[in-house]
Amino acid sequence: MTITWAFVRKELATWRQDPTLFVFLFAAPLLMQALLSDAFSGIIGGTGANQTVPGFTVMFGFYVMMFMGTSHYREHASGAWSLVKASGLSRATMAIQLAIPYFVLSSAQMALLILTGWWLFGATINGSLLALAVLILTIAWAAIALGLVLISLTRNVSAMQNLCQLVVLGMGAVGGAVVPVRLMPAWDRPLAPLTPQYWAVDGMQQVLAQRGGLVSIGPNLLVLAGWACVLSIIATFAFDPGSQRRVAIR
What we know:
It contains 10 helices and no strands. The protein has 250 residues and is mainly alpha-helical. One of its GO terms (biological process) is response to antibiotic.
């Protein structure tokens, strides 16, 4: 626990010194919401923010995993990861230690984006706040678990960042985070439910625009939790703390 808390404090200090993280995770999605909310109002026949706020909140919520991966490579570069390995912690514990700060960051980011979208762009919050909180935490869990798997698949920081970009953009676009699924080409619509982003965006729209509660988004939570559990299991076995990595951070 002491090592985990020390790691969290170190990450907090790093975030304070890295404005690009906050520009990318907060300013960028807010800019997308500002640019597209009015346009979607005429397309979906309602408040456009009820598409852009859930959509870009979910998409950029998954982007947190790229910063988690960059942090992991930075720890290798500084030699700090060698100290963690020498502590005798299990593989699962080390993966959890890496994940905790970014799980909190992703959850806080999504909550702030929803609140700001309601305040600035007119997104509604008609449903249960408890359901929204549970949904946000489940989405963050799935995003971080996916990130751990992608980190495990790469051996240099450029490959990790490129893979995260490809996965987040690809799954987000297919899953309806950018454009409503019903407006997608017919061949693409059956693919949407195969992504966690589809269930995340749909669940968030139910809570924000349709007075949804825990019961109504139950299927969404189950699918997202299923994704998170499977990815967490894969990450536990795939995450190799002793693997050699090219650690140059550009």
